[in-house]
Amino acid sequence: MTQDILTVEGLKAYYRMNYFGVQREVRAVDDITMSIKKNEVYGIAGESSSGKTSFIKVLAAAMRPPFEVVAGTVKYDFKGHQIDVASASDKQIEAVRWKHLSYIMQGSMSVLNPVRRIGKTFEDFAARPLGLSGDAFKQRVIGHLDRLKLSPDVLRAYPHELSGGMRQRVTIGLATVCHPEFIIADEPTTALDVVVQKEVLSLIRDIQKEMGASVVFVTHDMSVHANVADRVGIIYAGRLVEEGPTREMFFAPKHPYTAHLVASLPRIGDTAQRPALEGRPPSLAAPPSGCRFHPRCPLAIDKCKSEVPPMETVGKDHRTACWRWKDVEPLVAPHANHKVTA
Ligand SMILES: Nc1ncnc2c1ncn2[C@@H]1O[C@H](COP(=O)(O)OP(=O)(O)OP(=O)(O)O)[C@@H](O)[C@H]1O
Q1: Burial of 81 (0-12, 13-18, 19+ CB in 10 A)
Q2: Using an 8 Å Cβ cutoff, are 37 and 2 in contact?
Q3: Does ligand 1 have an atom closer than 6 angstroms to the CB of 43?
Q4: For residue range 22-50, what is the model confidence (pLDDT) as tens digits?
Q5: Taking a C-beta distance cutoff of 8 angstroms, is the pair 227, 53 a contact?
Q6: Which one, of 188, 143, 191, lies nearest residue 169 by Cα?
Q7: Which family does the similarity line name (predicted)?
Q8: What is the largest CA-CA distance in the chain?
């Protein structure tokens, strides 16, 4: 049986703000339970503002006030090192950062210090976790850059001197140079052109295979999920509403929201009109009762308005939170041009 490397239970994480004495709470992650296996690539999808970035910030132990964990656990089982990052101290998190757990944040420029040469940034990130210095450290970094098809010259460059694709490679290099067991990436390909996107994706996949790491990544681009993920999880209004093997999520979704998301993926030669999903995701300060998707759901019944659907197992590694999952039909037929992994 494959072992889990990450187990999340009953996780709630909110932005808690105080505006002139008035408390406001944005429930960005609201009761998520899930797990990720060793060597698995897990993609997280959902509309803008659904809580994807907030969720992986907790996984990456990168919360900053006013964002805080309100309930639940986020337990990693690293080699010889167990940690619950939802309650660990900064010092305990420091001990696993980069060496076991790494985080590729949204937008490579925000990670790379604009006034520091790339080589210095590598030293800041990786010298201590690797326990190397001087020439030994430099050789290790150069060897790693070579795998990423980057020349040692980049170490002398400033971030603005590199193209967007190169910067993203450097960010991936930073996140992987210590051979972490768990890599978290937020929109790793957004803002890159299609050709560079493909390169960056295959790079992440190659590195993951070579190092035997687990990867969690977020993107709103369903074609990236189709090509890269082993399993996909769908977040709607702060909740995980469905997760399952990528192929099943595309060809046999069991949540009406997933059916809409996967239907949004353009296919070559397909001119069929698909019903648009009306409305917008709800405010996370005052989400709807019952199933949060019910105001937009074509299958909603009275029960959906008042009772929260529990996550039910509907197949191997496949779970959904929908009272009417048996009635969910794919909105588009499987298509020959629709490449899906697995
Ligand atoms: N620093 C913050 N302070 C207050 N609320 C925030 C903050 N950051 C995010 N939020 C709110 O948390 C909710 C979830 O946002 P989050 O960025 O996690 O969503 P997302 O699914 O990643 O969206 P996107 O795809 O646009 O990045 C949103 O309602 C957002 O407005």
Answers
A1: middle
A2: yes
A3: no
A4: 888 999 999 999 999 999 999 999 998 99
A5: no
A6: 188
A7: Belongs to the ABC transporter superfamily.
A8: 68
* Cα–Cα distance for residue pair 124/182, rounded to 1 Å: 20
Q: Please work out whether the CB of residue 48 comes within 6 Å of at least one atom of ligand 1.
A: yes
**Omega prior to 298 cis, within 30 of 0:** no
Report the nearest atom of ligand 1 relative to the CA of 235.
Answer: 21
**Cβ–ligand 1 contact at 190 (below 6 Å):** no
For the entire predicted model, the pTM comes to 0.90
Q: What are phi and psi of 285, to 5 degrees?
A: -85, -25
Whether the CB of 26 sits within 6 Å of ligand 1: yes
pLDDT < 50: residue spans in the chain: 335-338, 341-342
Q: Is residue 281 lining ligand 1, measured as CB closer than 6 Å?
A: no
- 183 C-alpha to center of ligand 1: Å? 21
246 lines ligand 1 (CB under 6 A): no
Q: How far is CA 312 from CA 53, 94, 193, 200, 232, in A?
A: 25, 36, 39, 35, 16
> Which atom of ligand 1 is closest in space to residue 55's alpha carbon?
18
Reported as a single tens digit per residue, the pLDDT across 207-243 is 888 888 999 999 888 888 988 899 999 999 999 999 9
